[in-house]
Amino acid sequence: MDATAQPAPAARHERSRFLAVQFEDMAAQLATGKLGIWLFLANEVLFFSALFVSYGVYRSHHPELFRYASQFLDWRMGATNTIVLISSSLAAAWSVRAAQLGNQRTLIRSLVLTVVLAATFMVVKYFEYSHKLHNGVGWGTACNPSPELLASLPAAVRAIPVPAHLGTFFSLYYLMTGLHGIHVLVGIGLYVWLIVRARRGDFGPGYYGPVDAVALYWHLVDLVWIFLFPLLYLI
Amino acid sequence: MSTAAVAVRAPAHETGSYLEHGRGVRSWLFTLDHKRIGIMYLVAISACLLLGGVFALVLRMHLWSPQGALVSNDAYNKLFTLHGAVMIFLFIIPGIPAALGNFVLPLQLGAKDLAFPRVNLLSFWLFVAGAIFFLVVLVVGGVDTGWTLYPPYSLESARGLGILLALSAVVLTGFSSILTGVNFIATIHRMRPPGMGWFDMPLFLWALYATGVIQIISTPVLGITAAMGFLERIFHLGLFMPEYGGDPILFQHFFWFYSHPAVYIMILPAMGVVSEVVSVFSRKPIFGYRFIAVSSMAIAIIGFLVWGHHMFVSGQSRWASLAFSFLTMLVSIPSAIKTFNWIATMYKGAIVLKTPMVYVLTFFAIFGVGGLTGLFLGLLATDVPLHDTYFVVAHFHFVMVGAVMIAFLAGLHYWWPKMTGRMYHEGVGVASAWLVFLGFNLTFVPQFLAGVLGMPRRYATYAPQFTAHNRLSTVGAFVLALGLVVALAGLLHSLRRGRRAPPNPWGAASLEWTIASPPTHHNFDETPRARGPYDYSGLHEVSEDAGWVREEGR
């Protein structure tokens, strides 16, 4: 906050229709909005934290179980999704820059690209989930891998008897990737909303707060996945 | 008129208070005005206090005789569970920040509203949804696990809908609390008026800021834990239930990672209220301003590192217990710093015994006892025998009821003229403060004694030697209830018959007292220039009806 008294805003210039009444000017609104979204992201990190802590606790108690269960995950699909999501983050960052520069066409294109990549991520996720559930790999007590699935594992893994409480790993897997997936779906919804507003021409150098805020959220969703991928697929 | 992104231009100068701005139920339920949301919160949490209080009175009546006088053992278990859950999740945690904080915070900043008015409304409705869920829990047969909802007991397969609804309610009220915290921190960071640096803020704002930090960082952990418990109960995930390969102690760690910081969500705003009141009614600038401000932050930070003291006998390692015990001791330092500074503020002050100040004086006495008995429980050697006795019950009621609820009442009386534009009856207010103080001590001092003698908590019956303790306690509970009823009656009476409140009835110096009581819809026509919140120079009382005005150079 600057320490100089401002004249009444009405005396300076006509207020933007996007400027909320409690703010002096657009800069104040943008800075406040950004702080708000960062605080919200801090809460998101903590929201995921209990799942990461659970992962750490159970993995340290049962390292062999985690190594075994991880064989059921296809690292190729995980890697594909990682690349897809990082690319969508790039598109999201691009959209912010386009909004700041007032480049409407690039803005809409990059927003659409973000949604397309996010949807691609969910499609891959769908194939992963359906393949597992089809082969009896559910969560918790509902985890009974089918004989065909067990037969498809590498020989070294097949030699090990199926450990007890295999379902705990998959509970964590479904909880972590599921909560992340819900966040991706919310992100898709937010980007659709941004596209609608961008087509109306709402965004430009004077007003791009929502594009910035949603992009920050999207980067966090991306970041969570970057941790999930090695923890679940690469052990 | 909306304060949303598409804003209609407000007229430069308004007349008429926020209460007259828009009529009808819809203008309240969908308002974006922080003051109206604060009032709605106030009504909602007061209703929850009433509900939780009725549970408490039934419990106390039941404990009149050793075999239990009133309800079945099963009903008793459900009653103490819901008493705890309703009081904690629906009254004390949102109490001061959501009701008083929502109303006062923008006013103390000279702002037109909070940073995110819509988020504020969402927070209120999430709270209402959570409260409704808790009411439905009542209807579907209740929960008998204690408010801590520990597995494996709470997640057994035989359990019905009650536990699922309770966990959902916890998630909803949790997100309500998070959004309040986000709003408060963003507002305090970004919307301070010219002339108000970090160390020029009223201490109530420092308290709400520290509270916001805790709300944002700890509450989501409870949210995800409740969600995990919910899914564990339905799908047997094997996370918390040993029979499926889970670890019930993990739930306790997660639960207390939120629920210990939560007690600082309760007490920090209460301390903020006390800081305001003690300075105004001692007619003296607050002593040790920076120490009180920074100690709020210290409590918030250290408060994150002490959750294990709830688990000394739950099976954590002795080294963990040792560390948690040490860190628990550390929290007492900033708490004591505050207390000594308040006392020093009163030293040689011109103390005025108006209702808020009487409540605050009782706060000092009770918070002193409540805090010091916390040390008994933070020390391993004394905690192990005292664990799960009535000593624990008395300790946390001393800090939650005796300190937080009393500070809430102090703040409510203090800001009542600003909220409603009416002066309450001083005699009734002071009488309520004394009744609350006497009733409170009569209720909980005997519980300390019974606890030391080994009376366990959460039992529907007790050994005959504790009969006297329990009967004193039951009588005390009714005196306490009477005190609350008197306070409520006095406040409600003032709405119709109270004197019109001047802008500054107390001679306070912070910004909310520079505008009309009640404020206009936008509070301030122009952003004011802030001066020291405890700078009383030039303030003098013109008359009771005109209140205090500031004349420079007097």
TrEMBL record, chain A:
<dbReference type="Pfam" id="PF00510">
    <property type="entry name" value="COX3"/>
</dbReference>
<dbReference type="InterPro" id="IPR024791">
    <property type="entry name" value="Cyt_c/ubiquinol_Oxase_su3"/>
</dbReference>
<comment type="similarity">
    <text>Belongs to the cytochrome c oxidase subunit 3 family.</text>
</comment>
<feature type="transmembrane region" description="Helical">
    <location>
        <begin position="78"/>
        <end position="96"/>
    </location>
</feature>
<dbReference type="GO" id="GO:0004129">
    <property type="term" value="F:cytochrome-c oxidase activity"/>
</dbReference>
<feature type="transmembrane region" description="Helical">
    <location>
        <begin position="172"/>
        <end position="196"/>
    </location>
</feature>
<feature type="transmembrane region" description="Helical">
    <location>
        <begin position="35"/>
        <end position="58"/>
    </location>
</feature>
<dbReference type="InterPro" id="IPR035973">
    <property type="entry name" value="Cyt_c_oxidase_su3-like_sf"/>
</dbReference>
<keyword id="KW-1133">Transmembrane helix</keyword>
<feature type="domain" description="Heme-copper oxidase subunit III family profile">
    <location>
        <begin position="34"/>
        <end position="235"/>
    </location>
</feature>
<keyword id="KW-0472">Membrane</keyword>
<dbReference type="InterPro" id="IPR000298">
    <property type="entry name" value="Cyt_c_oxidase-like_su3"/>
</dbReference>
<dbReference type="GO" id="GO:0005886">
    <property type="term" value="C:plasma membrane"/>
</dbReference>
<feature type="transmembrane region" description="Helical">
    <location>
        <begin position="108"/>
        <end position="127"/>
    </location>
</feature>
<keyword id="KW-0812">Transmembrane</keyword>
<feature type="transmembrane region" description="Helical">
    <location>
        <begin position="216"/>
        <end position="234"/>
    </location>
</feature>
<protein>
    <submittedName>
        <fullName>Cytochrome c oxidase, subunit III</fullName>
    </submittedName>
</protein>
<dbReference type="GO" id="GO:0019646">
    <property type="term" value="P:aerobic electron transport chain"/>
</dbReference>
<dbReference type="InterPro" id="IPR013833">
    <property type="entry name" value="Cyt_c_oxidase_su3_a-hlx"/>
</dbReference>
From TrEMBL, chain B:
<keyword id="KW-1003">Cell membrane</keyword>
<feature type="transmembrane region" description="Helical">
    <location>
        <begin position="358"/>
        <end position="381"/>
    </location>
</feature>
<dbReference type="InterPro" id="IPR036927">
    <property type="entry name" value="Cyt_c_oxase-like_su1_sf"/>
</dbReference>
<feature type="transmembrane region" description="Helical">
    <location>
        <begin position="119"/>
        <end position="141"/>
    </location>
</feature>
<comment type="similarity">
    <text>Belongs to the heme-copper respiratory oxidase family.</text>
</comment>
<feature type="transmembrane region" description="Helical">
    <location>
        <begin position="286"/>
        <end position="307"/>
    </location>
</feature>
<keyword id="KW-1278">Translocase</keyword>
<keyword id="KW-0560">Oxidoreductase</keyword>
<feature type="domain" description="Cytochrome oxidase subunit I profile">
    <location>
        <begin position="28"/>
        <end position="531"/>
    </location>
</feature>
<dbReference type="GO" id="GO:0005886">
    <property type="term" value="C:plasma membrane"/>
</dbReference>
<dbReference type="GO" id="GO:0016491">
    <property type="term" value="F:oxidoreductase activity"/>
</dbReference>
<keyword id="KW-0349">Heme</keyword>
<feature type="transmembrane region" description="Helical">
    <location>
        <begin position="319"/>
        <end position="337"/>
    </location>
</feature>
<feature type="transmembrane region" description="Helical">
    <location>
        <begin position="428"/>
        <end position="452"/>
    </location>
</feature>
<dbReference type="GO" id="GO:0006119">
    <property type="term" value="P:oxidative phosphorylation"/>
</dbReference>
<comment type="function">
    <text>Cytochrome c oxidase is the component of the respiratory chain that catalyzes the reduction of oxygen to water. Subunits 1-3 form the functional core of the enzyme complex. CO I is the catalytic subunit of the enzyme. Electrons originating in cytochrome c are transferred via the copper A center of subunit 2 and heme A of subunit 1 to the bimetallic center formed by heme A3 and copper B.</text>
</comment>
<dbReference type="InterPro" id="IPR014241">
    <property type="entry name" value="Cyt_c_oxidase_su1_bac"/>
</dbReference>
<dbReference type="InterPro" id="IPR000883">
    <property type="entry name" value="Cyt_C_Oxase_1"/>
</dbReference>
<feature type="transmembrane region" description="Helical">
    <location>
        <begin position="161"/>
        <end position="182"/>
    </location>
</feature>
<dbReference type="GO" id="GO:0022904">
    <property type="term" value="P:respiratory electron transport chain"/>
</dbReference>
<keyword id="KW-0472">Membrane</keyword>
<keyword id="KW-0408">Iron</keyword>
